[in-house]
Amino acid sequence: MNTGASNFVEGVDLAFWVTIGISVVFLIGITTVIIVFLFKYNKNRHPKPVDVKDNYTLEIIWTVIPTIIFLLMFYYGFIGYVPMREVPSGALEVKVTGMMWSWFFEYENGKKSNVLIVPKDKPVRLNLYSPDILHSFYVPAFRVKEDVVPKVDNYMWFTATLIGDYDILCAEYCGERHSYMISKVVVKDERNFLEWYTSEEKDIHMELTSVGFQVSQEYGCLGCHSSDGSKMYGPTFKGLYQSKRTVFLENDEKKDVAADEGYLTRAMLEPNAEVVQGYTKGSMPSYKGSMTDEEVEQVIEYIKSLDEK
């Protein structure tokens, strides 16, 4: 009977403890042999060293035994890994977007959230997507981890077996705010999950104040830009609209600009064309081709609304 938080805990833990056990046995054995040989074959006892050669028995032993041990560890790892790639039919599908530096989840019925809410005892398939760089979706309590690679379709699945909240981390270093790329898996019983899944109310986890906020969250803007004036990886959104700033152009010339609608649009679609002084070229991804014109306008409206509060 599986007593972990997901259906994969037992298999992964077994492979882990087999590997640890074998490693401990070898650590103790090799250390013991080193200490024994240190005294038994020291220079005082054997002033004239003698080579050991052509000992086929010894060569067979140190070849066959490590091979068997390696195959044993491979076997337990393999039987734990194979089920992770075999998704049961009827699994709940969720699109997971990992971007600098946040996670975003979208369900088949259009429901969106910045935490992953799943039902207990039902398989869930996560379709992994990244619009910028390499990330890695990791739920330690579930013993599942999978890379989120730009322009590569990847997936993972699990069945949550215990109700509760579990940490989501990024296990691939992805830049300055990598350690801030955290979220939660919230496991509910089937009734409570369906109530949330079918409700038309605003998701309490999203705390939406506008459509622009939701778009900013979805595209990871709030992972770099604060909305309260605090310093983060990029300029804060608060007070940004119509503010004066010095930018470097692509030819390294400087000019002063006002952060109006035109500038903010260029900053999202062609961020390297006008780099704000004090920030690094290439640190912000281009959203050209991924953000629609309407979404760009919605983000700008959200930025403008922050100065009204």
SSE blueprint:
Layout: H1 9-40, H2 56-81, E1 92-99, E2 102-107, E3 112-113, E4 116-119, E5 123-129, E6 135-139, E7 144-148, E8 154-159, E9 164-170, E10 183-188, H3 190-198, H4 211-218, E11 244-249, E12 254-258, H5 261-269, E13 274-276, H6 293-305
Parallel strand pairs: 1-5, 4-10
Antiparallel strand pairs: 1-2, 2-3, 5-8, 6-7, 6-9, 9-10, 11-12, 11-13
Helix pairs in contact: 1-2, 4-6
Can you offer a commentary on this structure?
The protein has 309 residues and is α+β, with helices and mostly antiparallel strands. The protein folds into 3 domains: 75 residues, no CATH class; 107 residues, Cupredoxins -  blue copper proteins (Immunoglobulin-like, Sandwich); 98 residues, Cytochrome c-like domain (Cytochrome Bc1 Complex, Chain D, domain 2), CATH 1.10.760. The chain contains 6 helices and 13 strands. The strands form 3 sheets. The protein has a 5-stranded mixed sheet with strand order 3-2-1-5-8, with no helix packed on it. A 5-stranded mixed sheet has the order 4-10-9-6-7. Strands 12-11-13 form a 3-stranded antiparallel sheet, covered by helices on one side. A hairpin with a 2-residue loop joins strand 1 and strand 2. The two termini are 54 Å apart. About 2% of the residues have low confidence.
